[in-house]
Every structure is written in C-alpha cells, then in structure tokens.
Amino acid sequence: MMWVRRILVALLAIVVAGLILGLVFGPAEVERELNVVAPHESWPVGREAAGLHQEMLIADLHADTFLWDRDLRKRADRGHVDLVRLREGNVAVQVFAVVTKSPSGQNYDANTAGSDNITPLVMLQGWPVATWDSLGERALYQATRLRELARSDPDLIRLLLTGTDVESLLGARAQGSEIIGGLLALEGAHALEGDLAMIAVLREAGFRMMGLHHFFDNKLGGSLHGISGGGLSEFGREAVREMQRQGILIDLAHSSEAVVREVLAMTTRPPVVSHTGVYSQCPTARNIDDTLLARIAARGGLIGIGFWEGAVCDITPAGVARSIARAIEIVGEDHVALGSDWDGSTTVLFDASELSALTQALLDEGLSEVVIRKVMGENLIGFLATHLPAGETELQSAGERLEPS
Questions:
Q1: Which of the four pLDDT bands, split at 50, 70 and 90, describes residue 25?
Q2: CB-side exposure of 295: number of CA atoms within 13 Å?
Q3: CB environment 20-36: b (16+ within 10 A), e (fewer)
C-alpha cells in the first residue's frame, strides 16, 4: 500500500503545482491573447507634433485596466496601460472603467446574459472569494485597487472625486508634476444587482461615472448588443434619477438607442458616450446613429472615440484621426474626446506610450492646434471640472435638477 500512497502524493503534488503555475502564468497569457498591440514599425512623429504633444493636457475616457492582474507602477510587457506608459504618453487624466460581467463572444449584434467570461478570470487571478459570485463585489474590489494605489503612490496617481480635485491636479501639473488623475467608472449597471442602494455604496467607493449597460440587457433596460432593443425599465428610470441625484455622470456607451433617447428626455445633466465610433465613418453594429451622437452633444455631452476596429474600422493612427475628424463634423469640436478602450480585450496599433502618433495623425488630417488640444484632453478635463460634484452641498441639491422643465 506504500506505493499507492506515494503515487497519490505525487499526483497531488502535480495538481498543486499545476494550480500554482496556472495562477502565476495563466492570467498573463490570457491577457496577452486579449489585449493586443498589433506588431508595427515605430510611428513617425515630427518635431512639431512631438512638441505639441508634450505641451498638451491629454485625457482618455475609457480603459479597463483594473480587470487585469498587473502592478501598474511597473511597465508591463502586455496590455495597453500602466502608469509608466501613461507618463510616456503625457496622459494627465485616465478614466478607469470597471468590468464585472461579459458574455461569451461579446457579439455586437445580440447577446444574452446567460454566460460570463469574467467569473473564470476572477478565479484564475485569485481575487477574493466574495467576488466570485457577486458583481457588486467585483466592482468594489477594483475600486479598492485604485484607491490603494493612489494612497501608496500619491506622487504617481490621484483619485479624482470632485471638480476641485481636477483643478488641483491641473495646478500640480502646471508646476511640473507628472501626476496622473484617475477617475472610476462602472461599465454596466448590472453591478448594482438590482439594488438602488448600491449606487450610494459605489459612490462611496469612489465611482463618479456609471455606464448603464455592457454587452447584454439588464434590469435597467436594453443594451445596444442585447436581445430586446428596448428602452429603460422602471428600475432603470429610478436608477438614472438616483445617479443624477448623487452627482454620478451617466455613460451611454453600450446602451440601446431607445435607452439613449429616454435618458436624454428625462435628464438635464449632460451624459457621455465613453468609447464609440461614428456610424457614418464606420458602419458597424457597435456604433449608434449619427443623429443620436449629435443630440447628446447638443445637451453638452461628450463623445469618446475609440481606437479598436469595431469603433473606427481602421486602427492606424490615421484611421483613428479620420474618425475623430468625422465626429467633429457631426457634433462639433467641443464635444469630442479620446475613448480608447485600452485593456478592454481589444487589439490596437498604439498603446498609451505611443499617443504622440495620434497627435501627428491629427495634424496630418488638417486639424488646427486649438482643435487638437481640445480633442486630446481639454474637452474631457473641462467636462470633469464642470460636471463632477464640487462637494457634498452640490450632491444634496443635485436632485432639484433631475427633470427638465
């Protein structure tokens, strides 16, 4: 029987070793497959573009970076964003979106909520057990990671909660600091798990922007990529009102066109579409109708142009620049921003460190320096300075401005 025991011990050791190797190397290999910088030669950046890029305030509306198990203080050999590459790209503000559930396939045309790619990733990366079956806990865990990073390295990154925080960040950078402002956003309000009280819980955790949907219909209503194509449910309308009351910016990326129209009809505070393309430039099911983009901008909203194929069709810097130029034609130069979708299971042709290639492409597209400054960051930073709550007094009175007169 001794030999049987030895075999069992050996098998157990092999299983344990396999689990350890999976935990150590598995997440990195998964990310290398999903967050790709396609091979390319160095992008040529002339002296004018390089100088302009270093002078600008640069900001991006959407990166899913905290979904992945990386130390953002170090330059990674995978993915699109870390603090080192953000500094190399001269990024002043990065909105970090928090993903909690994503269906198999991530089809643009139709998905159900019956599958979830994130659960195995959460387990593989060794997240706390509470996150394994709770979307809300997944959101809170990612928020904790950003807060702890900001606390441990306050000279590297600062969590943005108010308009005053934005102004303070700008002051620090004007004095030569390279500090980066990070804003927490929720990608899909299914993380509320049907409970309006979770909005306050997430706000307390640091969230200041919430997307209503991701790739599937949820309790709030229809996704652009769901089954129903429907508008807001009663719970969805209540959630929108509560988000507005608590000073939460609403993100309409991934929401159905019916939801977009209803949100515009029932609110007065401007929404954003954090990461998208322009349908007339790139006619995919990922992009909503141009007229809806124009209506969002007419309400003071902001449109973030993405860097991946489903949004812009051509992912070269020149292709992204053409989509930005088309967006400006439709919504105006004051309402266009960057919405990369870096680290969002996307393939791109430039990461955060290579953003100067986009500055060069925008110059080549014929945009003026004034317009390029707006698109590359001034529009988004100004939007946050204006529309983030200034403090608790503004939050308490926000409810008075929910419904249009």
A1: very low
A2: 15
A3: eeeeeebbbebbeebbb
Runs of H (alpha helix) within 99-250: 118-124, 135-152, 163-174, 197-205, 234-245
Shortest CA distance to 394 belongs to which of 271, 250, 249, 247? 247
* Sequence letter at residue 141: Y
CA–CA distance, 94 with 275 (Å, rounded to integer)? 13
| The pair of three-digit structure tokens given for residue 135, joined into one six-digit string | 């979307």
For residue 9, pLDDT over 80 is answered with no
Report the C-alpha gap between 171 and 159 in whole angstroms.
15
394-390-296 Cα angle (round to 5) = 85
Q: Which residues contact 100 (CB under 8 A, 6 or more apart)?
A: 118, 135, 136, 138, 139, 186, 187, 188, 190, 191
- E strand or H helix at 303: strand 302-305
- Residue 26's pLDDT is what? 78
Q: How far apart are CA 265 and CA 60, in angstroms?
A: 27
User: Does residue 91 contact residue 180 with C-beta atoms inside 8 Å?
Assistant: yes
Could you tell me if 56 and 373 are in contact, meaning their C-beta atoms sit under 8 angstroms apart? yes
Is the predicted pLDDT of residue 405 greater than 60, yes or no? no
Report the C-alpha gap between 274 and 354 in whole angstroms. Answer: 20
Token reading at 159? 């969590």
d(CA 369, CA 367): 7
